[in-house]
Every structure is written in C-alpha cells, then in structure tokens.
Amino acid sequence: MIKRTLYFGNPAYLHLKDKQLVVKLPEVEKNNTLPDGFKKESTATIPIEDIGVAVIDHPQITLTHGLLEALLDNNTAVITCNSSRLPVGLLLPLAGNSIQNERFRAQLDASEPLKKQLWAQTVSQKIKNQAALLQMRNLPAEYLIPLYKNVKSGDTDNCEATAAAWYWQTIFPGIAGFRRHREGPPPNHYLNYGYAILRAIMARSLVGAGLLPTLGIFHHNRYNAYCLADDLMEPYRPYVDKVVCQIIDKLGIQEELTKEIKAELLIIPAMDVTLGDEKSPLMVATQRTAVSLVKCFEGGQRKLVYPEL
User: Fold this and answer.
1) Alpha carbon distance 110, 294 (integer Å)
2) CB of 14 within 8 A of CB of 55?
3) Residue-averaged pLDDT of the chain
4) 169: buried, middle or exposed (CB in 10 Å: 19+, 13-18, 0-12)?
5) Cβ-contact 93, 45 below 8 angstroms
6) 11-24 pLDDT, tens per residue?
7) What radius of gyration, in Å, describes the C-alpha atoms of the chain?
8) What is the pLDDT of residues 80-110, one digit of tens each?
9) Residue 292: phi, psi to the nearest 5?
C-alpha cells in the first residue's frame, strides 16, 4: 500500500490517540481565552501506519513526543520547514530494519571498484532520464544520448556535469540564461522544494532497508548526513523536473511558493514511475532501489534497480 504524504501548513495541534494522528485546528473566535485555543469540533484523524511523509510547515504547529515516537516507529519521514516555509530538517528513525547491523557491515565493507561501478550506473540512468524528459517536452536531447551510453566506472570523464550543463540550458526554453543554483532565481525554488521531498523519500527507503544514509557510494561531504540518499536519488531527479515543468505550464513562474504550488509538488511520492515492465508509485520504487543496493553490497547482484522515464 502506498503511504500517504501529509502537509500541515496552518496552526495545528498534532497528537497521538489510539494509534491515530489526531489533528486539532485552532479556535476561530477572536475572543477565545482558553490556553490551548482548540475545540473538539475541529479535529481529524489519520492512522499512523498509513503515513510515509509528514511536512510540518508552520511555526505555530505543536507536536507531542508520543506522536513523534509513533511516526518514527512507523519509519515516517518528518520534514520540518523554516521561517521561509522551505524544508530545512528531516527526522528519521535510528533503527529501521531488524538486521541493520548485518547490512551496515556489508555497506562498510563494499569495495571501491563496486562503488565506482554503481555510481556509473547511477549517472548513466540519470542522464538517460534527463534525455527522456527533454524528448517528452519536444526539446533537443541528442547531445545526451552518447553521454549516458559511455559513462565509465566512477564517471571519470565527468559525464554527469557535462550533461547537466546542456540539460539546464535546454529544459526551460522560456527562461533565457537559466542556471540551476540552490540560491538562484525562480524556478530554482520549485526545484529545491521538490528535491527536498525526494531526498526525504529516498532517505526513508534507505533506513527501511537497513542502510546508513550518511555513507555514500560517491558523495562524501563531511557535513552531509544524507550522502547515500543524494547518490541514489539522482536518477529520480528528472521526475521532479517533470512536475516542475508541468507546474510552470499550469501556473507560470511565481516568486513565492504558494500552497497551490506546494500541493502540486507534494504529488511526487505518489507519481507513477516504471521499473522494468512494472509501474509503481515513486515512494515504492525508491524502496526497490534501496533493496537492490543492499543486494549489491551483499554480493547477490551487480546492478541497481532504477526507474526509466
């Protein structure tokens, strides 16, 4: 069953009761003087077991410790947002798998040649998906085809960066001189938000598979707690880009991330992706990718399972 993605963007009191997340909304009367400011009529409940991602996007949201414990026990990714209403934090369980110690050891013992081969597969599939998205948008993609077909072990020729330079100059034809940069002008903020959701989904899948999301096969920034998530999410990024393109087609480019735009981006966990001949929600696909990495670390296979756009 696909897990639900919940977004909380208004003042609320969230707590746990009978294995349900209970949402209480604030009293609307201006003369209300109750300390908690909540009334019984403004409530909703969601089973904890149904929740995969929870986005907390308002400074006046209160969560109880009991609720956080239940969410983490369920391997729910809890995303917190800052005063600018952008994702800034991610909570995940410390133990997400019953044989976690065994899988940690396999991950730590993985050889450098294996990791370089896995990174080459990752880069190749990312570029292939970028080319597919350009073709879907009736944009030139011929430059990317020989790149994804000729990625060497460890991507020693830096095909990823070469492809990115072409891709970002091409994907938004209506934006002259667009450059992908985290602090750059719109629609960079659309991409940032979508990638943050994707990163949380992938990190959740890695923890559920019993892996350390900190230890990457390529990324190794000492200040990055999610290097492995950043590695494995690369071929999934074009799916976020696809949603962003659809948002621009529908709503245009806006300076602020409105609730309508965020609602469009929050469909990412449930969007259909194709692995082999099978379609599945993206959140399920990331779980299959994480499990395939476990098998590679344990010697059961040599190829990662990635979606094809």
Assistant:
1) 10
2) no
3) 89
4) middle
5) no
6) 999 999 998 999 98
7) 21
8) 988 888 888 888 887 666 677 888 899 999 9
9) -65, -35
CA distance 181 to 62: 33
User: CA neighbours within 13 Å on the CB side: how many for 274?
Assistant: 6
Q: Torsion-angle region of residue 114: left (phi > 0), alpha (psi -120 to 50) or beta?
A: alpha
* Alpha carbon separation from 160 to 106, 123, 144, 180 (Å, rounded): 27, 6, 10, 14
pLDDT digits (tens, 9 = 90+) for 141-179: 999 999 999 999 999 999 999 999 999 999 999 898 899
Peptide bond into 187 cis (omega under 30): yes
- CA-based max dimension of the chain: 68
- Report CA-CA distances (Å) from 280 to 108, 197, 207, 240, 269: 30, 18, 20, 16, 10
Please give the DSSP secondary-structure letter assigned to residue 16. Answer: E
Alpha helices in the chain (DSSP H): 65-73, 100-108, 112-136, 145-149, 159-170, 188-208, 227-232, 237-251, 259-265, 282-298
CA atoms within 13 A on the CB side of 113: 2
pLDDT category, 30, cuts 50, 70, 90? Answer: very low
Instruction: Please check the confidence at residue 187 and state whether its pLDDT lies above 60.
Output: yes
Q: Which residues contact 65 (CB under 8 A, 6 or more apart)?
A: none
What domains can be seen in the chain, in order of their start residue? 4-91 (3.100.10.20), 100-298 (1.20.120.920)
Residue type (1 letter), 97: N
Specify whether the CB–CB gap between 263 and 7 falls below 8 A. yes
Residue 219: both structure tokens together: 């990324």
Burial of 211 (0-12, 13-18, 19+ CB in 10 A): buried
Tokens representing residue 194 in the block = 């979508």
Cα–Cα distance measured from residue 74 to residue 89, given in angstroms and rounded to the nearest whole number: 18
